[in-house]
Amino acid sequence: AHAACYVIVTPECTFGRLRNMILPPNCVQLFSRNFSKLHCFRISENLQTESDEDDDVDGSTQGSTKDIQISTDSSKQTLKIFDGNDAVKRNQFRLISVPRIAKNEEVVEAALRAYYINDDQQEYELQTFTQQVLLSDDVINRNDAAEDSNLGSVFRESVPEAWIIRAKPKDEEVIRIYPAWLKVGMAYVSLRVNKDSTVQTVIKEVLPLLGRQTECLQNFKLVEVLMGSKQVQRMVLDDQELILNRLKDIRKTSIRQMNQTRFYIVENSKSIVQVNLFVGGLPPQLSPEEYTNILKEELAIKTNVVSVSHVYQAQGAVVLQISCFSEAERIYMLVKDTVVNDKPLNAVVLPAVMASKIPQNCCPLLVFVNPKSGGLKGRDLLYSFRKLLNPHQVFELTNGGPLPGFHMFSKVPSFRVLVCGGDGTVGWVLGALEEIRHKLVCSEPSVAILPLGTGNDLGRVLRWGAGYSGEDPYSILVSVDEADDVLMDRWTILLDAEEPAEGAENGIAEPEPPKIVQMNNYCGLGIDAELSLDFHHAREEEPGKFNSRFHNKGVYVKVGLQKISHTRNLHKDIKLQVDQQEVELPSIEGLIFINIPSWGSGADLWGSESDNRFEKPRIDDGLLEVVGVTGVVHMGQVQGGFRSGIRIAQGSYFRVTLLKPIPVQVDGEPWIQAPGQIIISAAGPKVHMLKKSKQKQKK
């Protein structure tokens, strides 16, 4: 609110329709100082493709024909105009086109117009890089030095093509002082200052104008605030600093910056500086002391102002608590260029959430977005959700993964999660939730899905659709708010490759270490995994082409056609045990364990026919269904809806013995698995998911 409006604004804010899922701003504390909004809201700089009008752009861009049509008219000339020393240093200029013979005032006016400055042009002058002032009666010729001044107030072709626009020095001027959070009923007060005016005298003169004449001067400070489009910079001015000198310095740096600068009178408050910095990418499973030593060696942290407040050993991450702004900024910038064990570190500035202030009926939504999913749709959703919700509750998964978000919400008594991405992204977030669950006050948050990219079988089952196609982000959030809570089984897959017989004696071959993988949707062995593996390799070779569902499905078809003539006998290469009972396999080329009734982008592999041998599948029944396919043609018929798979078994504990290397895929991630054992069992507690309510389901 404007300062003048602030007094009449009611203390309560309803936050509108999304009030139950917005993280209230008064519950978030962030000591940012000079951290830009990109850092505070964890916005990746490589996603910022559009330049802001108010921000300086590289000189080559700013001086291109896109910004101004350079006149081919022989009576015109084009000049580079810098608005101060900072622009000169960075070679960031703007172009103006003026007549070859023009009054100096006209050139100054054109220069001010280029920077959108509406001040009186009489207060400004042009200088060359040698700081020579262009006087109003100068005539400058491209081929000559200054000519006789009696030719009048004209500006001809200048020898230099670049000029700096400067403010003329003043003996006194009127400045505005804004009352910040003081409830005084006015937007600002105007004050005349002269060459003797200091910050202290300004405070002394302003307080009576604000009705605070009885207050002690020492309880207030004058803060200079620069409001650029990418960040807000604050600086407390020294009591003895001369105001006119400060204004002169700002204008010398940048004329435009003066128009973006305000002076606020602020009450002193004793606040303890505490910056929380999440640092990831460290080696996993180390002790807090070992992490501290690594940070000392790599980042030269000062232990008197930096402490490790939280350690996430499994993920190789720590949270630093820093009580010095400059040290926090130094560490943040240094982390970007630091590599430990060939792995780059990453840093995220995290606010503190004051959970005790969150209203009882509020259940904030923690949003994770994968901007790489679904072309550029993920990036667009990031922008939208940051506007609709508190931007602090929206996390970009390419910037540190899900862990920073879960850490920030660790003390929140009740919250929900929205994951925007493909099935792989959903699995990533659910896996992180499983690992950190014991450190969360709300240990079982419900998870909603906004499907991006291809596949999205889990999104289909939970009624969120096959993929995001541009729906209104506000409507999506309303649907999440109204969604129904359902339970879903998750499964743990233990992959234990056995040592080859001859390798044991000769030491030629080493067994692969056991691997544990979490499964949400399905696990496939044989032809199903082989097609996924071929598709995966094709995508790695030319990732730029895989940005549409149509193209991706085309590649799947092409890969599948190449496999039609192949004959395999998967049933001879594996053995299956279900709930301690051996199961005889029919003649198949693929074996698939399914947890949800959607496979391969929406196909019903189990089928809807009733069968007395098996229970009707549910996503929360603690059972997996085992289905076989006879080949590529059979898979195509299943995906076309003409057939279903071969029902083999249903159970809660499975042991598969691989007699030879076989392609395996779990939730779309394929690899070749060496001979050995695969054990599939239930993974701890069921996960809470959000299913879109029927009345809100898209028709």
Question: Would you give an account of this structure?
Answer:
- The chain is of the alpha+beta class.
- The chain has five domains: 75-129 and 160-167, Ubiquitin-like (UB roll) (Roll); 173-267, Phosphatidylinositol 3-kinase Catalytic Subunit, Chain A, domain 1 (Ubiquitin-like (UB roll), Roll); 275-350, 2-Layer Sandwich (Alpha-Beta Plaits); 354-482, Rossmann fold (3-Layer(aba) Sandwich), CATH 3.40.50; 515-685, Tumour Suppressor Smad4 (Sandwich), CATH 2.60.200.40.
- The chain has 20 helices and 35 strands.
- It has a six-stranded antiparallel beta sheet with strand order 24-23-34-31-26-27. Strands 30-29-28-25-32-33 form a six-stranded antiparallel beta sheet. The chain has a five-stranded mixed beta sheet with strand order 7-6-10-8-9.
- A hairpin with a 2-residue loop joins β14 and β15.
- The longest helix has 15 residues, at 527-541.
Topology:
Elements (H helix, E strand, L loop, with lengths): L2 H4 L21 E2 L7 H4 L18 H4 L13 E7 L2 H5 L4 E6 L4 H11 L9 E4 L34 E6 L4 E7 L10 E6 L4 H11 L10 E8 L4 E5 L6 H11 L1 H5 L1 E7 L7 E6 L7 H12 L6 E7 L4 E6 L2 H11 L3 E2 L2 E2 L1 E5 L1 E2 L11 E5 L7 H12 L5 E3 L6 H6 L7 E6 L1 H14 L10 E5 L5 H5 L11 H9 L2 E5 L2 E7 L3 H6 L8 E5 L2 E5 H15 L7 H15 L6 H4 E5 L2 E3 L6 E5 L29 E6 L2 H8 L6 E6 L1 E6 L3 E5 L2 E5 L2 E7 L4 E5 L8
Parallel strand pairs: 2-5, 6-10, 18-19, 18-20, 20-21
Antiparallel strand pairs: 1-17, 2-3, 4-5, 6-7, 8-9, 8-10, 11-13, 11-16, 12-13, 14-15, 22-35, 23-24, 23-34, 25-28, 25-32, 26-27, 26-31, 28-29, 29-30, 31-34, 32-33
